[in-house]
Structures are given as structure tokens and as C-alpha cells.
């Protein structure tokens, strides 16, 4: 998101932004930690804006001259990248292709100095930046001899101006993973460099969650951004402000209708975003997610209005042409009036209250669907938007005849693909699910074909049982299918597969008179290469997860089942198996 | 210390004394006689130790204010207050009692704004003279007059400056503080090095925020001539190699030439630049000696034209370096530095928080260390802490301001620092940490929040700022979690109660689904809508689950493994049951509350 766009109109961030600006302009603490658990990106843009404003001479009252570097810890994932980005930004240096993409390397009189070697070099780099900035602004080359003075004192300039370096790190929680050794010296940067440096860590995690151990880093000055979700109007305002941004950008986008973001429609958009907010706010608090949903739904929402408008324009055009052909010889004045009329008719206007209500009523269900599909990113936003375009003549239909929302897509992709498998693979998957879910010692009870044919599947007690003495007081037993699949050896899978095949597959097989003993045919079936091939194929698709290492030859391979209960249930239904009867933990 | 605590903690006792002798002040301390002369307000004074609600107190004041208009009494009391303030600065023990006496006017100032506004308005009407020299809190103009608004800005500025570099507070009694002693010793030591060319070494040990680095800087600044200063930090220089390079770099910067020059064969010719990328080929820049010669660099230090001071911040971390060779070389050089042999002095100052640092040193290193250990300490008494706050808050404004501003501000600060709640807050902070930087942070927020509408520091501002700066809440967002997230948390609490401290996403999802089903099974409808809980798709729940995991509300129990699907990874709930309970109640959704209460 363009910073200049959001930060200019971010209600709800006023106090924090002014606090930060005032702090930075007067005497900031050397280490500030800004914490926003809800909208870190929005906060980042606000901070970016505040700092940039200060840098551009907006420092009111403060004598300090501020130079800032704003880096993202996701982008700067190695120390060198970090050092270079910070120094380049502080010195306002843009590496260019022509001069070999050199990083900023100090004053021109000292070539070959590299400030990205290690942290010490970075500290020297900061001191050099400071000297460089002072000299650049004084326009008096103090070090005419070309000798670098090194340690720059904070009060060395003639006007008593203080040069303050501000380093903002967004997504600072990433520093803990990417460069943990940098975290402590960064927090002590001011005392290490002996300069007026303020470092601002911006994160959606508390500093306590990623602080280095042993109290090596000093405590920061905390700034907590107030939660935006507590003020509804501010949130809606921010969501609506995306309209102006999109209005500027929609020209280049081929996906949206060029007129969808024309300025006339802004009031409608704010009502639309209020509706969207009221539907989504229980589920989503992040403003950027709301904007994302709004951007995906708006083209469809406004399409009926635009369609009706275009139809109207066409109608007018046709009438005009008709009239012109009828009265071909007309006075000039009249035709000018006509043009005026046409001009007015061609203007997009805000739809009436009634239309608005009808639109909102029609699109409300689809916003819920959008939450379910787009918020978890199950569908591509543009694709979803295209698929959920309303029918062409929506507004001309009577309210009762409006089509319902399109049916939601049929579950996750996984389930659909799985059902297209060959029959053997389906049997293998169901057997694997049973093997992963049932305890191994219950197999004989569940699948054994003994004398007591009738009672074998009756479990003892299904009710929540008392915990055993040594289990740490676990009250109720959690079904295995919620705890995750257990690994099982290949033999067990084949045995269960055999039982399933014998019970549900034996009848439909072609006659084979050479197998006289009961079960012999099935034994033959499960030892076919195709079964093993199917297992390996499923393992390569991660529908079976290999639990044992693949490079051991002698050990029997063990697997875990990779499909969920719902998918297994579906497959079992396809095969005519009553899955719940075969599960030890009844559902 | 003890008597003081007793005094603060036992207001009822004082009350009983006073009730027994209402008219004859037998108490030895002179300030108690303040109670008796102003007969006009016996009620307030008698009442204040009773733990009454501020509203009730305000009410009494309100009722009393018409009968006794303030113009007469306040100045008188104000004079007493000033006298008392003087006494306080002389005798620390009296402070708290004086503060309790103060409480009556202050409660009027802080708690009963509407009641106090009326007399103030009249004061304002009388013109400038009314608030020109305010002597007590209630005479402060409630909102700042327009002409004084720039003063507030300047004052804020001055305070911020003094908070950045805390002022020293003067010790009240004969007892010399540890820091002063340490300063004395350290500057003597450095003086010896600089003036007489001694080789010295010492350790500066003290807790965090006790002013170690400040002390070193101060000592260096006060030296008569400017030595070479090399600052190393164990946090930045993780090994000896880095540290020695840094020494070479800083030496080159401060002396303007490279070391180990051409008499040992010129390094830039011998060393392959690829092998030492740090080496600069350019002649004009600093040339670092080759790695093999780096240790020899240290022995060069005493031969430099100026004495050298080496500051090792995080000294204990240097002791963790391999073989402690840097420390060995440095201390050896310092020890063998003889006065009068034509060399300049060298001082090695180790700064650390670890008390047992000396034990970390190897025997050969320890035997070269002089064994001098200087100790700094944090402020040891609450009163010093308050004094520090006072001196920071009353930082003099550099530019000229209207003459009425300084006394006005001083009164505001005095009344702030004598407020009962403020003392209480300070006491809490002080018993948690003695790090003066904490105090700075707390005061910074207080000062930043001063506006012309609310121009004076107040107990409420202090409480708010302490909440953020001292121990910030870990999960301030719990009460505003989205619906799916709070449902997951409640489900996790349910599992916790049933004895399962760890859970998978599948478990939570199952619990949520069951709960939605049971809540919707009730055939009750209110205004056409069911009373059941909202449904939520599995994917949205999964998204909420991931968000909670990144916000560390859920932490994984084991390290992530490749073979486990992400919905079966075990997590633990971090916030405790009561935090969640409070959050659910703050949300005010009946369904959720009912579900939570079943756990």
C-alpha cells in the first residue's frame, strides 16, 4: 500500500503519531518499541509518514535535523543487507546501475571503505554518515585535506544544530530469527556510536517476546498503538479511503471496470464498506483484510449500477440518433441543447436509496462467502470476483426474482481430487485412515473374524472414561482422529486392507475358481505389485506420510495417514464401507 | 526506612492520635500545628485519613466551599506548605506525614474539578495577579492561560532534555553515595594514567541503570588533557579478532595514522586482499594491520604520544572469549607499563553488571589485573527517587519565560509529587526496579501527555504511563479478539479444565463445532433470529488459529517436525484462565460468557 495514501488519512492513529513526532523532534529515547497487535502494516505506514514529514523539515520547535532510514526486517534478512539499506537510506544514496550499483561508501575522498563487514564497521559507517551529512548541509568542506575526522561530536556544527539519525525497523520480530546476534548491539546503538541515534522497532509482537536473553538489551520506551477495532468509524473511514487510492490506480488495472471507482460513487462505497464491515467485523479486525475483501467485492457490487447506466446511455443515444434522423434539418441552438441533455444523461449518478437497499440485500450473502473463501485465501481474489459477478440485468429483475448467491465451491481441492482416485487407492486410503486412527491392539476386536461374529465390534464403554492412575489426570480421552494420525507399519496396512477387500470387494471380483480356500483370493490381491505401487504413489502425493526414513532397506516402512476424517468418510461412502463401525473411538 | 514505611502504611493510627487530642497538638513534629489554626475546615482534615471514595470527598468539599470561600485560607496554607517543603528537604522522615497533610488541598485539586473550578474562575477574573505567584496546588489555573502555553512547550522540552541526561541529585546527609566514591576513585585512577603515565586497570561493577557508563563519561570529561579513548563493547565485539580490529580502527581514527607501519614489512604488500577483505588497498585510508600482528598492536599502545583509556563495556562477555587472550594482553600491557620509562599511561576500565566477574578470569589474567573494583549502586531510597523525579520535572527552562511561570510550575510539580497516589505509584515502581531509566520512561510519557487543556502532571497520567512503561500487559488485545479467535481460546480453556494442557487445531475445531451445534439446537428465537452461536468455517478458524500462534497466545509445545500436518501440531495456551475470563466478560457476548462459564 502506498504510504502517502494511507498515512494521510488514518484516523485513530493521531495521538500515537503526534507522540512519536514530538518525541523525535525533541529528545527521543535511544530505543523505542512500537507495538500494534492488530494492524502493524497500517502503523508502519503511519510511522513512515511521521518520520518522513519530520525529515522533510517539518520538525516544529525542535532544533534537530532528522535523517531517517526505514527498513523492513523481512527484506533485510542478512546483516549485510541491513547495514547497506540503513546506510544508503541515511545518506539518501541510491545505488545506480551506471556506477556499478555501489553502496554508499563514505565521503568521496576515501574510496574503498566498506561499512558492511560487521557491526563495528556499521558503527563506523553511521559515524561517517553523520559527518557526511554535517558537511553536506554546511556546504563548507571542513575536512578539505581529505582526512576523515572519525568521531564526530554531536555539537560540532556551527549553528548548534543536532543531527539525529532515526532508524525504523518494521517487522522487527524477524530479527530474532534472521540475525539474533544483531539484536543486542542494535538496542545499544546510541551508546556504541556515541551519536544521537534513535532506533525504533516496530512489531506486532511485544518486545518481551523477542528480546535477547539475560537482560543484555536495555528496556525500550514503549509506545502502544491503541487498538483500531475499538473505534468502528475510524475503521470504516480507513477502508473507505482505499477508494481514492483505487480511483487513481484503476486506470492501469485491466481487471476492474474503469468507471467502478469514479468519484461520484464514493458515498455509495462508504455505505458499501460500512455494510461490509458490519458483516465481517466479527471475523476480521485487520483493516488490510477488509480492504482486500472490499476490493474483491466492489466490482461485482457496482456492476448492476454501471450496467443500468450504460443501458440508459445507449438508450439515450439511440433516441438521439432516431430523433436526428427524423428531424435532420434542425437549428443549431436546438442541437446544442440536445448535446447538453446528452451530456447530462451520460454522467454517472448515484443510484437511488431503493436501489442501494436492493443491492446491499442481494450482496450480503456473497460477502459472507467472500469471508469464507478469500480471508483464508482459498481462492484468488480476481478470480473469485469474476466468478461471483452478478447476472447482467440484476436491477431490472423484480426483488423476488433475484437469483440467489452462487453455491460455494465444493470444499477444498484435496477432497475433490481424492475422489477421482482408482478403487485400489481409495481402499488403501481408508485402510490407512483406520490404521492411523485405531490403536493397534484393538485390531483383533475390530477386524477379527472369529466365532463370535455378532459381538466382535461392540466396544466396552463409550462414555468418557476415568483417567488411568498414571496418565496425569487427563479427564476425558481425546479421540485419536483429533490428536493426529499414528504411524503404522506396512504389514498392518496390508492386513486391514485385506479385511476391507474381503468384506467389500470380494463379491464384485471376477470368478476365479483356482482359489478354493476362503480369503485366498484376497491374499493374492493384496500382494499384487499394483497395491504396493499405489501405496508408494500415495506416499509421494503425501496422502500417506512416510514416518520411517526412506533409505533404510531392512526395516519395514511405516506410514501415517495424510487425509482428514471428512475425506476418509467420503471415500468410505463411495466404497460402501461403514467407516464409523470400524472406528474404535466412535464419533 | 522502617519508620517511614510505618508512617505511610498506617494512616488510621495517626487518626486515632488526632482524635484523642483534637485541639492540643502534642506531637513533637512542628508541622502538625498546621492542623489547628485553620478552624474553618476541620471536617476535611479530620476526614482525610478515612478511606473514603473521592466522590464523597469531593462532595464534602463542594458543600464546604460556598461557606468558606478560598481567597483567605489558601495563601496561608500555602505558606505553610512551602515551609513544610523546606522541612521535608531537611528531614526525610517528615516527608510522608507532610504528604498526608497535603492530601486535603490536593484531593480538591485533583478529584473535585467542578467544585474547584468556581473559585478559580473568580481568581482568573481578578486578573493576572491572582495566579501570578501561586503557592498551593489549588491556586493553579485549571486550564492554562493562552499566554502561558508556549511556556508549557518550553518546559516540556526542558524536561525531556533533562530526562535524557538525568541530573545528579545532591545527597542530603553526610553519607557519601557509592557512586560519588566510585567517581572519586575512578577519576583519581584515570588522572594517574593521564598525568603520571601509570598503567592502571579497574572494574566498575553495578546493577543496570546505576550510572556506570555515565560515571565513566563524566570522569573522562573531567580529565585535564585529552587521552586516546577506545571503547569496546562485549555486545558488539563477539570475539577477540573483532575487538582487536576495532581497537586498530579507533586508534587509527584518533591518532590519524596506521599502526605497525613500514618497519614491520608493509602490510598491504604482504597480505593478499582476498584473504583479508577488510584491508583497504587505498593509501589514503586507514590500513589495518594483518591479523597475525593484531595482538602485537596492543603492546604498541603505551608508546603512543598520548595516554590511552580503554573502556570495555560488558567486561564479563570478554571473559567468555577463547583463552581470554585480549584481556591477557591488555592487562599485561597495563601491568608492565612503568612510570618514567618514557611511555605514556594506559588505563583499562571494565564495566559490567556481573558481580562475580573476577571469578571468570583465568588465573594468569587475574594475576595481571590490579584487583580494583569500584561499585556503583542505584538509588537506595524512595525519597531519592522522588527527588530525582522532582529535579527532572523542574528542569530550568533555558529561554526567558514570563516570570510567573517558574513558581507556577514548581507548585504544580510539588503538588504532583506529594500526592498520595503518586507516592504509591513511585513506591511500587521503586520496589520492582531501581533502574533510573524506568523512571525516565515513565516520566517521559507523563510529560508528553501534557496539553494546554490539562497542563499539570497528575496521578492519573502517572498511573497510565506506569502501566505502559513498567510492565506492559502481555496481551492487551485479548478483549478485542475477533470472534473465531476468542472461540478458539475458550475451547482451549475447556480442554485445560478437562486436563489436557496441550491441544491441536482439530481438537479446538471439534469443540467449537459441538458448542455451535448445541447452542443452535435450542428452538428458541428472539426477534426472528436464533440465539445460537455464529457458525464459522473451518478455514476461517484455521486462519484465526494461525494468527493466535503468531501472536504467541498459543505456543507450540515441540519443535515443528516435517511429518506432522499443521492441524495436528500441539500447542499450549499462554494467557491464563483469568485473563481470558476478563476478556470474555469485557466482550459482553452472552453466548461466549455462557460457554466460558461451563469450563
TrEMBL record, chain A:
Q: Name one GO biological process term.
A: DNA replication initiation
Keyword check for Transferase? no
What Pfam families has UniProt attached to this entry? ORC5_C, ORC5_lid
Give start-end positions of Basic residues composition bias. 456-468
Q: Which InterPro entries match?
A: ORC5 (IPR020796), ORC5_C (IPR047088), ORC5_lid (IPR048866)
Q: Which UniProt keywords apply?
A: DNA replication, Nucleus
Subcellular localization is given as:
Nucleus
- Provide the ORC5 lid domain boundaries: 269-320
Q: Which residues form the Origin recognition complex subunit 5 C-terminal domain?
A: 422-582
Please give the residue ranges the record annotates as the region Disordered. Answer: 452-473
- Superkingdom of source: Eukaryota
Q: Which GO terms describe its cellular component?
A: nuclear origin of replication recognition complex
GO: which molecular function terms? DNA replication origin binding
Its protein name is Origin recognition complex subunit 5
- Tell me the organism: Ceriporiopsis subvermispora (strain B) (White-rot fungus)
The organism's taxonomy opens as: Eukaryota, Fungi, Dikarya, Basidiomycota, Agaricomycotina
TrEMBL record, chain B:
Keywords recorded for this protein, A-Z: DNA replication, DNA-binding, Nucleus
The GO molecular function terms of this record are: DNA replication origin binding
Query: Looking at the record, which segments are called Disordered?
Result: 1-24, 51-79
One Pfam family, short name: AAA_16
The terms describing its cellular component in GO are: nuclear origin of replication recognition complex
Keyword rRNA processing attached? no
Location comes to: Nucleus
> What InterPro entries is this protein classified in?
AAA+_ATPase, AAA_16, ORC4, ORC4_C, P-loop_NTPase
What main location does UniProt list? nucleus
Query: Which residue range or ranges hold the AAA+ ATPase domain?
Result: 198-379
Name of the protein this chain belongs to: Origin recognition complex subunit 4
Source organism of the structure: Ceriporiopsis subvermispora (strain B)
Amino acid at each position: 500500500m502506498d504510504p502517502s495514501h494511507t498515512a494521510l488519512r488514518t484516523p485513530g492513529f493521531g495521538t500515537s503519531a503526534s507522540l512519536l513526532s514530538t518525541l523525535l523532534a525533541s529528545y527521543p529515547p535511544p530505543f523505542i518499541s512500537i507495538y500494534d497487535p492488530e494492524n502493524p502494516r497500517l502503523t508502519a505506514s503511519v510511522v513512515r509518514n511521521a518520520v518522513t514529514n519530520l525529515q522533510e523539515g517539518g520538525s516544529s520547535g525542535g532544533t534537530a535535523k532528522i535523517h531517517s532510514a526505514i527498513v523492513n526486517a523481512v527484506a533485510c534478512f542478512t546483516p549485510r543487507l541491513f547495514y547497506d539499506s540503513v546506510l544508503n537510506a541515511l545518506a539518501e544514496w541510491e545505488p545506480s546501475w551506471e556506477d556499478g550499483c555501489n553502496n554508499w561508501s563514505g565521503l568521496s575522498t576515501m574510496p574503498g571503505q566498506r561499512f558492511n563487514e560487521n557491526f563495528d564497521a556499521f558503527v563506523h559507517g553511521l559515524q561517517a554518515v553523520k559527518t557526511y551529512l554535517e558537511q553536506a548541509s554546511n556546504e563548507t568542506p571542513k575536512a578539505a585535506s581529505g582526512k576523515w575526522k572519525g568521531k564526530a561530536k554531536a555539537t560540532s556544527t556551527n549553528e548548534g544544530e543536532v543531527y539525529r539519525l532515526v532508524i525504523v525497523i518494521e517487522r522487527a520480530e524477524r530479527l530474532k530469527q534472521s540475525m539474533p546476534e544483531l539484536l543486542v548491539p542494535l538496542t545499544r546503538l546510541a551508546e556504541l556510536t556515541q551519536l544521537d541515534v534513535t532506533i525504533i522497532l516496530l512489531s506486532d509482537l511485544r518486545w518481551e517476546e523477542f528480546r535477547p536473553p539475560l537482560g543484555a538489551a536495555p528496556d525500550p520506551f514503549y509506545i502502544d498503538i491503541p487498538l483500531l477495532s475499538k473505534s468502528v468509524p475510524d475503521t470504516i473511514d480507513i477502508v473507505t479511503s482505499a477508494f481514492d487510492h483505487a480511483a487513481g490506480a484503476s486506470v492501469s488495472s485491466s481487471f476492474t471496470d474503469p468507471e467502478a471507482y469514479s468519484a461520484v460513487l464514493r458515498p455509495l462505497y462508504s455505505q458499501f464498506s460500512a455494510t461490509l464491515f458490519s458483516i465481517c467485523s466479527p471475523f476480521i479486525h485487520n483493516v488490510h483484510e477488509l480492504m482486500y475483501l472490499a476490493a474483491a467485492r466492489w466490482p461485482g457490487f457496482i456492476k448492476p449500477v454501471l450496467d443500468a447506466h450504460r443501458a440508459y446511455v445507449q438508450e439515450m443515444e439511440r433516441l438521439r440518433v432516431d430523433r436526428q434522423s427524423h428531424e435532420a434539418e434542425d437549428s443549431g441552438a436546438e442541437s446544442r441543447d440536445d448535446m447538453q441533455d446528452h451530456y447530462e444523461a451520460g454522467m454517472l449518478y448515484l443510484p437511488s436509496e431503493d436501489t442501494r437497499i436492493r443491492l446491499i440485500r442481494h450482496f450480503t450473502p456473497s460477502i459472507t462467502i467472500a469471508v469464507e473463501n478469500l480471508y483464508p485465501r482459498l481462492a484468488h481474489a480476481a478470480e473469485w470476483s469474476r466468478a461471483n459477478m452478478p447476472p447482467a440485468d440484476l436491477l431490472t429483475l423484480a426483488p423476488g426474482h433475484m437469483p440467489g448467491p452462487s453455491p460455494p465451491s465444493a470444499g477444498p481441492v484435496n477432497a475433490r481430487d481424492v475422489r477421482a482416485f482408482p478403487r485400489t487407492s481409495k481402499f488403501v486410503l481408508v485402510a490407512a485412515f483406520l490404521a492411523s486412527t485405531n490403536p493397534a491392539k484393538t485390531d483383533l476386536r475390530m477386524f477379527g473374524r472369529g466365532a463370535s461374529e455378532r459381538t466382535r465390534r461392540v466396544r466396552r464403554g463409550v462414555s468418557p472414561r476415568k483417567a488411568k492412575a498414571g496418565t496425569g489426570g487427563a479427564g476425558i480421552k481425546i479421540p485419536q482422529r483429533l490428536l493426529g494420525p499414528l504411524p503404522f507399519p506396512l504389514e498392518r496396512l496390508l492386513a486391514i486392507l485385506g479385511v476391507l477387500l474381503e468384506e467389500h470387494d470380494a463379491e464384485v471380483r471376477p470368478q476365479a475358481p483356482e482359489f478354493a480356500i476362503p480369503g485366498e483370493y484376497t491374499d493374492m490381491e493384496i500382494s499384487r505389485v499394483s497395491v504396493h505401487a499405489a501405496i508408494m504413489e500415495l506416499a509421494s502425493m503425501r496422502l500417506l506420510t512416510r514416518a520411517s526414513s526412506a533409505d533404510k532397506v531392512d526395516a519395514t516402512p511405516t506410514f501415517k495417514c495424510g487425509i482428514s476424517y471428512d475425506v476418509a468418510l467420503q471415500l468410505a461412502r463411495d466404497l460402501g464401507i461403514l467407516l464409523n463401525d470400524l472406528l474404535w473411538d466412535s464419533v | 526506612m522502617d519508620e517511614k514505611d510505618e508512617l505511610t502504611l498506617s494512616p488510621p493510627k495517626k487518626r486515632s492520635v488526632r482524635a484523642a487530642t483534637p485541639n492540643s497538638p502534642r506531637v513533637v513534629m512542628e508541622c502538625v500545628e498546621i492542623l489547628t489554626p485553620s478552624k474553618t475546615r476541620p471536617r476535611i482534615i479530620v476526614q482525610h485519613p478515612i478511606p473514603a471514595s473521592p466522590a464523597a470527598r469531593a462532595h464534602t468539599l463542594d458543600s464546604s466551599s460556598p461557606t468558606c470561600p478560598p481567597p483567605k485560607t489558601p495563601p496561608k496554607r500555602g505558606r505553610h506548605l512551602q515551609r513544610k517543603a523546606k522541612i521535608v528537604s531537611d528531614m526525610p522522615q517528615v516527608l510522608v506525614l507532610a504528604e498526608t497533610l497535603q492530601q486535603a488541598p490536593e484531593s480538591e485539586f485533583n478529584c473535585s474539578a467542578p467544585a474547584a473550578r468556581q473559585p478559580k474562575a473568580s481568581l482568573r477574573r481578578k486578573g493576572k495577579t491572582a495566579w501570578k505567584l501561586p503557592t498551593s496546588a489549588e491556586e493553579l489555573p485549571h486550564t492554562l492561560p493562552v499566554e502561558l502555553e508556549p511556556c508549557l512547550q518550553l518546559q516540556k522540552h526542558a524536561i525531556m532534555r533533562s530526562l535524557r541526561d538525568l541530573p545528579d541529585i545532591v545527597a542530603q546527609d553526610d553519607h557519601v553515595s557509592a557512586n560519588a566514591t566510585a567517581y572519586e576513585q575512578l577519576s583519581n585512577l584515570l588522572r594517574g594514567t593521564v598525568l603520571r603515565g601509570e598503567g592502571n586497570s579497574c572494574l566498575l561493577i553495578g546493577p543496570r541503570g546505576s550510572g556506570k557508563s555515565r560515571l565513566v563519561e563524566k570522569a573522562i570529561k573531567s580529565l585535564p588533557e585529552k587521552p586516546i579513548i577506545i571503547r569496546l563493547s562485549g555486545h558488539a565485539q563477539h570475539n577477540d579478532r573483532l575487538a582487536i580490529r576495532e581497537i586498530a580502527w579507533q586508534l587509527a581514527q584518533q591518532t590519524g595514522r596506521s599502526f605497525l607501519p613500514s618497519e614491520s614489512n608493509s602490510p598491504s604488500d604482504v597480505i593478499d586482499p582476498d584473504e583479508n577483505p577488510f584491508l583497504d588497498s587505498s593509501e589514503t585510508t586507514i590500513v589495518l594491520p594483518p591479523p597475525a600482528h593484531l595482538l602485537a598492536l596492543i603492546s604498541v599502545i603505551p608508546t603512543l604520544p598520548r595516554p590511552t583509556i580503554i573502556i570495555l563495556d560488558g567486561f564479563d562477555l570478554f571473559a567468555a572469549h577463547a583463552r581470554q587472550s585480549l584481556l591477557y594482553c591488555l592487562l599485561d600491557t597495563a601491568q608492565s607499563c612503568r612510570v618514567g620509562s618514557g611511555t605514556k599511561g594506559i588505563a583499562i576500565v571494565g564495566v559490567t553488571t556481573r558481580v562475580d566477574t573476577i571469578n571468570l578470569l583465568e588465573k594468569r589474567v587475574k594475576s595481571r589485573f590490579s584487583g580494583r573494583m569500584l561499585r556503583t549502586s542505584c538509588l537506595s531510597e524512595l525519597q531519592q527517587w522522588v527527588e530525582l523525579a522532582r529535579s527532572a520535572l523542574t528542569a530550568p527552562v533555558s529561554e526567558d519565560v514570563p516570570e510567573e511561570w517558574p513558581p507556577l510550575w514548581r507548585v504544580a510539580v510539588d503538588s504532583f509529587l506529594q500526592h498520595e497516589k503518586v507516592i504509591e505509584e513511585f513506591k511500587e515502581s521503586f520496589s520492582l526496579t531501581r533502574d533510573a531509566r524506568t523512571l525516565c520512561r515513565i516520566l517521559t510519557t507523563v510529560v508528553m501527555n501534557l496539553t494546554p487543556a490539562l497542563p499539570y502532571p497528575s496521578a492519573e497520567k502517572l498511573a497510565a504511563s506506569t502501566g505502559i512503561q513498567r510492565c506492559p500487559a502481555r496481551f492487551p488485545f485479548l478483549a478485542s479478539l475477533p470472534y473465531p479467535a476468542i472461540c478458539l481460546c475458550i475451547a482451549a480453556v475447556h480442554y485445560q479444565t478437562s486436563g489436557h494442557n496441550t491441544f491441536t487445531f482439530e481438537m479446538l475445531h471439534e469443540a467449537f463445532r459441538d458448542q455451535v451445534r448445541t447452542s443452535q439446537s435450542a428452538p428458541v428465537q428472539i426477534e426472528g433470529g436464533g440465539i445460537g452461536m455464529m457458525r464459522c468455517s473451518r478455514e476461517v478458524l484455521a486462519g484465526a488459529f494461525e494468527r493466535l500462534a503468531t501472536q504467541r497466545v498459543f505456543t507450540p509445545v515441540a519443535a515443528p517436525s516435517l511429518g506432522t500436518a499443521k492441524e495436528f501440531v500441539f500447542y499450549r495456551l499462554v494467557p491464563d484462565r483469568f485473563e481470558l475470563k476478563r476478556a470474555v466478560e469485557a466482550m459482553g457476548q452472552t453466548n461466549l460468557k455462557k460457554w466460558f462459564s461451563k469450563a
